[in-house]
Structures are given as C-alpha cells and as structure tokens.
Amino acid sequence: MNQPYIESKEFKGKNYTNTPFETADYDNCTFLNCNFSGIHLSNNQFIECHLINCNLSLSKIKNTAFKNVHFENCKLVGLNFSECDPFLLELKFTECQLNLASFYKLKLKNTSFKNCHLNETDFVETDLTNSIFDNCDLKLAVFEKSNLMKVDFTTSRHYSINPENNNVKNAKFSRDGLAGLLEKYQLIIE
C-alpha cells in the first residue's frame, strides 16, 4: 500500500500528542516547534527533512526512515534509533538532547553531533567511522565493540571508552580527555 507523498511543506507549532500524525513520505519538509512526544512515528519516511525545536522523546520509530535528516535543538530522550530503517540512514544533530537514546548496531559513518547531550546513550556495536562529537557531553554513554575509527572527540567531555574493546584507530582525543580512555585501569590522574 502506498503512503501519501508530502513535499516541501512546513509544519509549525503542531502538537501531535493531541492530533494524529499522518503516516507518509515527507520529502524536504521542515518541522518547527512540533511535539511528537511519545507518539507512534513508525513506518514514516523523512527525506532531507529539518526538525527544529521539536520534542520526539519516547516516540516509537520502528521502520521509520531518516534519510539526510537534520535535528536542531530537539529533545530526543529515550529514542530507539536502532529500530528505525537502516537503509540510507543519514542523520545530523545540533544542540540536541539525546540522553538515553540507542544507536545499537547502526552504521552512522560521517555523522555530526554538535553541542549535544548524550548521557547514557547506547553506541554498542555502532559504526561511527569519521563522525564528529563537537562539544558533546557523553557522560555514561556506552561504547562497546564500536567502530570509532577516525572519530573526533577532541572537544567533547565525560566519555569513557575502553580502547581494548573498541576500534579507536586514528580517533582524535584531547589531552584533557585521556582519562576517559584509562578509566578501566582505575588510575588516579592528577
């Protein structure tokens, strides 16, 4: 069954917790100040869309496609990206709250996280090759069996990454952040 195709439309100030969200293919659309908190967004397709000042916390995104989607100043707490459609998945995050989100086993090469809070976020077995964490808070974020090759962490903080359990080849870290790579050894660094 074909879904409606919605192109180049702006949705402003919509509260989808009160009114239904139409399942569709959204192409080059902008969502501004919209509330999707806790609703089912499953089986939608977002292509080259921009979401600004939106709340998607605890929304269901099973089989939802995000193809070149930019989230800006959005609240995405507890979002399980590992359930979305991985085909052509491309995301960008600027000034977002991604606490308790999950990117388990996703391929997120060249992804940009800028000024984001990623506390307790799941990056287990995630391929983040060539990604950038620019001024991000990664407190208690979980990196295990992750591909962090060429990832730039130089301006980020509070990460704890075990180099023996992750591919960190050519990843960039600041001198101040080196303690996050040695935490496993319970060293006292002054």
Uncertain segments of ≥5 residues (pLDDT<50)? none
Oligomeric state of this protein = single chain
CATH architecture of the largest domain: 3 Solenoid
Distance between the termini: 62 Å
The major beta sheet can be summarized as: 7 strands, parallel
- Going by helix content, strand content and strand pairing, the class is mainly beta
User: Whole-number average pLDDT?
Assistant: 94
Based on CA atoms alone, the radius of gyration comes out at 17 Å
Percent of residues in beta strands? Answer: 15-25%
Instruction: State the CATH topology of the largest domain.
Output: Pectate Lyase C-like
Form type: elongated
How many separate domains? 2
* Continuous helix count: 1
Just give the CATH class of the largest domain.
Mainly Beta
The succession of helices and strands, N to C, reads: EEEEEEEEEEEH
Strand order within the widest beta sheet: 2-4-6-8-9-10-11
The residue fraction in helices comes out at under 10%
What is the assigned CATH homologous superfamily of the largest domain? E3 ubiquitin-protein ligase SopA
